[in-house]
Structure formats: structure tokens, C-alpha cells
From TrEMBL:
Name used for this protein in its record: TonB-dependent receptor plug domain-containing protein
Transmembrane segments: none
Location relative to the cell: Cell outer membrane
InterPro entries: Plug_dom, Plug_dom_sf, TonB-dep_rcpt-like
Membrane topology: Multi-pass membrane protein
Length: 833
């Protein structure tokens, strides 16, 4: 048994060790260097982002609000990723496969707080909330963050789901040889997974027969439907497994994968040794002289950690990979055969205990109704030393919001496990709870059966890097295409004007060109709540025979393989009090809202009308101004044609698109100085200015000499300020229906509301409205939500809130991470007597 092992932290050391150890492997060394170079290039051009979404709970009534906080991480290093500034959150109806609601949350320093109001129009049933960045759309949707929610109506009515209608007897059983293949005469472990129609794992039992109907082995799974057995395939035999639910039902036959006559098998021991990962390799290939060589690559999140070269001189080899060299998380072991083809693969989890410990310490062991809870929060590293972390915290009534799955996903399980795997992970937090002594064996078994496809080795080896179609967003985007009305290519660039009109009457005015194929993109925009967007295209001399499409208006597609299993579908009786109390609280809030509206209607306010200031104008009274109307614009092509001869001191030379302009007295030692053109408050070049259709202009102001000094040195040649009709805060863009124009209402960043938590302390300091709120019954399900808790350098923070009228247990859950990407989660219970 002989192999050469080396770390990849030093390529020079890598080559030297190989050359000294075995010069005959020079060609394979070239292969190693080639793979390392291509792998690095692939990951540099295809970095990864990860997203996690913490919601205050998992069950809601229509009319309630989902409080949430998004976390955005660098997917390769798990550090706080501050690149993507927009986090998309979709509420999906998985049965109808439709997005019912969509949010755009502003991500600042990797954190994106927000909320989603659930309309009464939603039907009861199982929903999914998914979160992702625009850049993550370059990868399969299976790597988006997804979470199952239950949404109910006040009458308790339910909608049928696919998980209920599917046959409960149908089992999906998969058999997966460790490493990927069965080979004649080589003993292998065969993992299996049994799922019911809803996707939930079920315990099964059975046996395996060969072609001669001999019983080869029995099989039995764990509670989650996974397990393994050992098989030594014989030549000329095929194998069939007979499986049934544990303790009941009929056996169903499932063929095992075909047996290969020649090949290699891989068996990995990641459990028995605390220092090393042991990889056992066996083969039945012909031994050549000199012996050929296989190569084992170990990589974690885009970083090749270790490489081992294994000659085929003997039938078996043991490769030991030091765990200390691996980052924490899922590692992928890939074996390349002597022809440089990947033939075996295995996922393992390397635990480094790199998590933060969050401690929630209330100031009392139990509380009365409407009593103040003062909560101290501390965050420490695995070494017990304090670390600063950013957390989100929810406090809910445990009786109104029962916890069905104590092993549901957390920021720890998602970041370290689920975000790198395809398919649903059932009870993911089970594998990170120290109380479960068998968790590492169960996790190792899970990784023998779970899919992982962040990349395809064939693409890496071929140097084929999929293009990045969706860029990283530093702000909101408007993208689309301009074509002819018959949808044919426009044939060249088109000049575009964008006007964004906000609810507060402020407006942004942008200009630009499409590419030669008509595609356009306006990026890094910043607007909140619903905004009216106007896009106008002009090609040639005011030619508007154009059709404009906007990607943001398209209905998003939803890819779902099966409706997710939802435990609440089978335990709705536990939600009876939740529905009753929540509806009572909503009715009280509705009555208070109606009373407030009646009070406002009875008040008459007399005051002078406030004239809103035009935000496009930073100057006072201009030196001259020309109001554009049908009379003075008739037959004119550009704004210069209109103002020519109408403003003293403004000299226009030529006409049409070739005209030039100078304001008298604007000169220096170098000669005449051209004026600065400003379009709706934004400086533009002269070519852009004279391409503005005159019918779109409201007026043109001219600033000379001292008046233009407000624009600094740029106004040395005077200023020509163009104010368009659409740029006016009083202009209604929604009425625009001109050819070559698109008008749409688009959501911007969702405005972040503060969570209302009533205070029941000193009533003398409260407003009348606060006193009125305090007088009503309080049976809230979520008592407290705080999305941005930052512990200091000593790992400390404090928050406070008040208990409700319910005598119950409060369930506290805090999640978060350090800036370096160490995640943590903690839960605590508070008794209210």
C-alpha cells in the first residue's frame, strides 16, 4: 500500500513532494495542477451566496404579519456578505405553484429585516416562503432558502393539499452504493432512503435476494427512513430488495443498481477516528507495469483542501485525511481514475465546533400577567470567550403557537448543512443538538443518501464555466428589452428615458442606451414602496414605433417537485385556541381602527394649501425662462430650436441636431465655454439634451454668471435647465399612454415597520391612544420581535418587553451570526403564572 499525500496550500511544495516521491507520476502531477487551476478559475468566476430567513413563527392567521429577518452570507467562506444589497422573499402556494406575494428587502451589512402582511384573500393551507438574491438565480432554485408555513383562516377552514391526496401506501425507496457503484467481488456499503408520498421519511424493513432467490442480507432503517447494509456482489448475479413499512404492509420489490464487472469502490470512515478521515479504496482492475495512478481530491465550499495520489499497484489502499486541515461543514471527496475521469464520490461532514453559544437570561424565573421581562443576552465562542454577534429574537406564546418540530431548521443547520444539499432535510437541527449522542452517525448516513451538485466536474475539467446571467445587485434594477411592435429585433441601440415617481412626489430622471440587440438595464436604484416607473424609447428622429418589455413585470416561475410535508396538516386540533384568540385580537384592532377613522372624519382642518417645492430645482428665480407650448414648439426639433431668439444673451448657432449654443460672457483664455445642461436636476451632455422631444418639455430655465455659481465650476459657461412634464411632481405618469412608452407600478424596497410591543408600566406617561391600547385584552401570539440585536465586544446586549394576559409559557428563540460567519441558535422558556 503506497500513496503520496500533500496539502494544496503550497503548489510549489506539492510539485516537489510528488517529484521526490515518485517521478513516474509526472503526467498525473500535470493533471493535478490542471485540475487545481481550473477549479480555482471556476470558483473565482462562480462564487456562491447563501441566505437564511428567520421568521417569528411558523403558523399564521390571514390578516396577521410575518416578521422576518434575512441573513446574507458569502457561500464560500460564510463571512457576512455585504455585496448583494437586495433580498427577494416570495410567499409561494406550492399546490398552485404560484407566487402569491413578493418582497424586496434592503440588505445592509448582510442583514435584511422586514415584514409581510398576509391578506384575507389567501386560502388556508401549506405555503412556502423562499428567500434569495438576484445573483443566486444563476444557480438551481434548490439552493434558495425555503421554509414551510401554515396559513389559516379565522373560520378554521382548510384547503386540500397534494400531500393529503397522494396515496399513503406508495413508498419511494432509493438505493445508493457508497461512492457511487457496485463492483463484482468488492464488498460495499449500500445506503438507502425511504420516503412516503409527502416527502417524509418512514421507517422500513426488508431483505435482499439475488437471482437464485437466496437471501443475502436483511435491512432496517432509522426513524427517518435511512439506513445501509453490506453487499459483496457476485459475478452473474442481480439483486432485488423487498421493502415494507416497519411492522405493517406488503413487501414491494426494488431492483438494486447494476453491478459493474470492473471498477473501484470507496468506503469512508469519518466516525471512529477523531483526527483523521479514513478513505478505503479497493479495485479489481488489471495491474500494469508501471502501475497507473488514481487521484483523490477533497474540497470544501470551493476550496481544494487535500489531494492524495493512489497507485493501482495493490488491490487496496488506505488514505488518511487530517480533519484539522478542513474547514467546518460539508466536504466532497472525489476519486479520479487512471484516465482522469471522476468515478467515486462521497460527502462527509467535518465538525470543528465553530459555533457561537447564545445565552438568554431573564431577570426572573416566572412572571405575572403584563409584567416587564428584562432579558440579558450573551454570545461566546466555542472557547467560552465573548464574541460580538448580530441576532434576531422572537418571543411567542407557546400555547397559541405550539412547537410541532423541535428539530426544525435553524441558522446553524441551514448554513452548515442544508444550504449545500439538494432536497429537503427532515429535522435538520437534530444533527447539531449535543443531546443526541448518535447525531454524527446519523448525519454521516444522511450524507450517503443526500444529493449535492454545486458544480459538475465535467464542466470544471472542460473549462466550461456557465455564464453569470444575473449580476450581483447593489440596488434595485430595471431590466428588459426594446423591440418592434411585431417583436422583431430593433436593429441597433435605442435611447431610453426613465422616470421614477415616488409617493412623496419626488422623482428620479435617468437616461441611457440599450445594447445593439435592444436589451437594457438600469441598476443600483433606490426607491421604497410602490413607485410609478415610466420608460420611453426613441430611435432616430423621435421614432417611437417601439415595444418595451420590463422583466420586473413578468410572473415568476416556481419549480417544486412535491408539496412539502407539513406536520400542522395532521395536528390542526392544537391550533384551535390560536385561531380563536388571534381572531378576537384582530376584531378588537379593527374596531379601534374604525373608531379612529370616525374621529378623524369629524375634524375639519382649515389651513393654506402648502405648495410643494420642486426637488429638481436647486436655484431660485432663473435669469430667463421659456415655457414650452404647442405654439412655440410647432415644427421645432430640439429645445435649442425653441429657445433660439427668445432669451437675450443665448446664442444658438445652426439648427436641428447639429446646433451649438453659447451664453454671452461665458469665456476664458481658452475661448468660449459651453453651458452646463441639466435635465430634471441631473447633469447631462448636450447630445442627450437636444435629443429630448420638445413635446415632453415643460420649460427651460437659463442661469447666467453669478446665478450659475450654485453649480460650481461646471456652471462656468452658464446653465440651461430643462424641466420635463413627466419630471414634475404634479404630473401623473399613470395617464401616459404614448407610443414607445411603458408605464408600470413597481414595488421598491419594503418599508421596515417597527414591531409594536405594548408597555404596561407607568400609565401616567402614556398618551390617550396608548392608554386605550392598554385597556383592551392582550392575547397576542408573538409578544416580541427584535431583528437587529447587536452584542458588543463583551458579547452582551439587553432587551425588554411585557407579558400578555395569558397564563402560559413563552418560547424565546434567538438566532444570529458573527461577522466571520459563526452561526448560533438558542431557545429558552419563560413561565407566566
Amino acid at each position: 500500500m503506497h500513496h503520496t499525500f500533500y496539502r494544496t496550500s503550497s503548489i510549489l511544495a506539492l510539485v516537489a513532494i510528488v517529484a521526490l516521491a515518485a517521478f513516474r507520476f509526472a503526467n498525473n502531477d500535470d493533471f493535478v495542477n490542471e485540475v487545481l487551476a481550473k477549479f480555482q478559475a471556476y470558483n473565482l468566476q462562480r462564487p456562491v451566496e447563501k441566505v437564511y430567513l428567520h421568521t417569528d413563527r411558523d403558523t399564521y392567521l390571514t390578516g396577521e404579519t410575518i416578521w422576518m429577518k434575512g441573513y446574507v452570507f458569502n457561500g464560500n467562506t460564510h463571512t457576512a456578505d455585504t455585496i448583494s444589497k437586495v433580498l427577494y422573499v416570495d410567499l409561494i402556494d406550492p399546490t398552485a405553484r404560484r407566487v402569491r406575494q413578493r418582497l424586496q428587502l434592503r440588505s445592509s451589512s448582510s442583514y435584511a429585516p422586514g415584514q409581510l402582511l398576509l391578506p384575507d384573500s389567501l386560502a388556508s393551507g401549506t405555503y412556502m416562503v423562499q428567500a434569495y438574491t438576484n445573483y443566486m438565480r444563476n444557480f438551481p432554485e434548490t439552493y434558495y432558502f425555503r421554509k414551510t408555513l401554515t396559513i389559516l383562516k379565522a373560520d378554521g377552514s382548510t384547503a386540500s393539499t397534494a400531500s393529503k391526496s397522494a396515496s399513503p401506501d406508495r413508498l419511494d425507496v432509493q438505493f445508493l452504493p457508497e461512492g457511487g457503484q457496485l463492483v463484482e467481488g468488492l464488498e460495499s456499503r449500500v445506503a438507502f432512503k425511504a420516503l412516503e408520498a409527502s416527502g417524509r421519511g418512514l421507517p422500513v424493513e426488508g431483505f435482499v435476494l439475488n437471482t437464485r432467490k437466496d437471501t443475502i442480507t436483511g435491512l432496517a432503517s432509522t426513524q427517518l427512513g435511512v439506513g445501509f447494509f453490506t453487499l459483496n456482489p457476485e459475478a452473474g448475479q442481480t439483486y432485488t430488495a423487498f421493502v415494507k413499512r416497519l411492522g405493517s404492509g406488503q413487501f414491494t420489490a426494488y431492483p438494486l443498481p447494476d453491478v459493474q464487472k470492473e471498477g473501484v469502490v470507496m468506503q469512508v470512515d469519518n466516525i471512529s477516528n477523531k483526527d483523521n478521515i479514513r478513505v478505503y479504496l479497493r479495485h479489481n482492475k488489471a495491474i500494469t507495469d508501471p502501475p497507473a495512478t488514481m487521484t483523490l481530491f477533497a474540497q470544501t465550499r470551493g476550496q481544494v483542501v487535500q489531494v492524495a495520489k493512489v497507485p493501482l499497484a495493490k488491490r487496496g489502499a488506505l488514505v488518511q485525511l487530517p480533519k484539522a486541515e478542513f474547514p467546518q461543514g460539508i466536504a466532497q471527496l472525489t476519486l479520479f481514475d487512471e484516465t482522469s475521469k471522476p468515478i467515486c464520490e462521497r460527502l462527509i461532514f467535518v465538525n470543528k465546533n465553530e459555533q457561537i453559544n447564545i445565552t438568554l437570561s431573564p431577570n426572573k424565573t416566572s412572571y405575572k400577567n403584563r409584567e416587564k421581562v428584562e432579558l440579558s443576552i450573551s454570545t461566546t465562542g466555542s472557547d467560552g470567550k465573548p464574541v460580538a454577534a448580530n441576532l434576531s429574537l422572537a418571543a411567542v406564546d407557546a400555547r397559541l403557537a405550539p412547537e410541532i418540530d423541535s428539530n426544525s431548521a435553524s441558522i446553524v443547520s441551514h448554513l452548515l448543512l442544508s444550504s449545500d444539499l439538494t432536497g429537503t432535510i427532515e429535522q435538520p437541527s437534530y444533527y447539531f443538538n449535543p443531546k443526541n449522542e448518535d447525531r454524527w452517525r446519523q448525519l454521516d448516513l444522511l450524507l450517503m443518501t443526500q444529493g449535492w451538485r454545486r458544480f459538475v466536474w465535467a464542466d470544471v475539467l472542460a473549462g466550461t464555466i456557465p455564464p453569470v446571467k444575473y449580476p450581483i445587485e447593489q440596488g434595485l434594477s430595471l431590466t428588459g428589452r426594446v423591440v418592434r411592435p411585431n417583436q422583431k429585433d430593433i436593429g441597433g441601440k435605442v435611447k431610453l428615458t426613465f422616470v421614477l415617481s415616488r409617493r412623496d412626489s419626488t422623482r428620479d430622471f435617468l437616461t441611457g442606451d440599450t445594447d445593439e440587440s435592444g436589451y437594457f438595464g438600469a441598476y443600483d436604484l433606490d426607491f421604497t414602496d410602490t413607485t410609478t416607473v415610466l420608460i420611453q424609447g426613441v430611435k432616430g428622429k423621435a421614432n417611437r414605433d417601439l415595444a418595451i418589455s420590463l422583466d420586473q413585470l413578468l410572473t415568476p416561475t416556481v419549480t417544486i417537485t412535491r408539496v412539502p410535508y407539513n406536520p400542522f396538516e395532521f395536528r390542526r386540533d392544537e391550533l384551535g385556541e390560536f385561531i380563536k384568540r388571534t381572531r378576537e385580537y384582530q376584531e378588537i384592532e379593527e374596531q379601534i381602527r374604525r373608531n379612529r377613522e370616525v374621529l378623524l372624519q369629524s375634524v375639519t382642518v382649515k389651513a393654506k394649501k402648502f405648495k410643494e417645492r420642486d426637488s429638481r430645482v436647486i436655484y431660485g428665480t432663473p435669469d430667463a425662462s421659456v415655457k414650452f407650448d404647442p405654439m412655440n414648439t410647432a415644427g421645432r426639433i430640439t429645445i435649442l430650436d425653441v429657445i433660439q431668439g427668445r432669451i437675450a444673451g443665448v446664442q444658438v448657432m445652426g439648427s436641428g441636431l447639429s446646433a451649438r449654443v453659447q451664453i454671452r460672457g461665458a469665456a476664458n483664455f481658452g475661448g468660449a465655454v459651453e453651458p452646463l445642461f441639466v435635465l430634471d436636476g441631473m447633469p447631462v451632455d448636450m447630445q442627450t439634451a437636444i435629443n429630448i422631444p420638445v413635446n415632453d418639455v415643460d420649460q427651460v430655465d437659463v442661469l447666467k454668471g453669478a446665478s450659475a455659481s450654485i453649480y460650481g465650476s461646471r456652471g462656468g459657461g452658464g446653465v440651461i435647465s430643462i424641466l420635463t412634464k413627466r419630471g414634475s411632481p404634479n404630473y401623473d405618469l399613470a395617464k401616459e399612454a404614448a407610443p414607445g412608452t411603458l408605464v408600470a407600478k413597481l414595488p421598491g424596497y419594503a418599508p421596515v415597520r417597527a414591531f409594536y410591543s405594548p408597555r404596561y408600566d407607568d400609565q401616567s406617561k402614556k398618551t390617550e391612544q396608548e392608554k386605550l391600547n392598554a385597556a383592551r385584552p392582550d392575547y397576542r401570539t408573538t409578544l416580541f420581535w427584535s431583528p437587529l440585536i447587536q452584542t458588543n465586544a463583551e458579547g452582551k446586549a439587553t432587551v425588554s418587553f411585557f407579558t400578555s394576559d395569558a397564563k402560559t409559557n413563552l418560547r424565546l428563540r434567538a438566532e444570529g451570526a458573527t461577522i466571520s460567519g459563526m452561526p448560533g441558535m438558542a431557545q429558552h422558556r419563560i413561565q407566566v403564572d
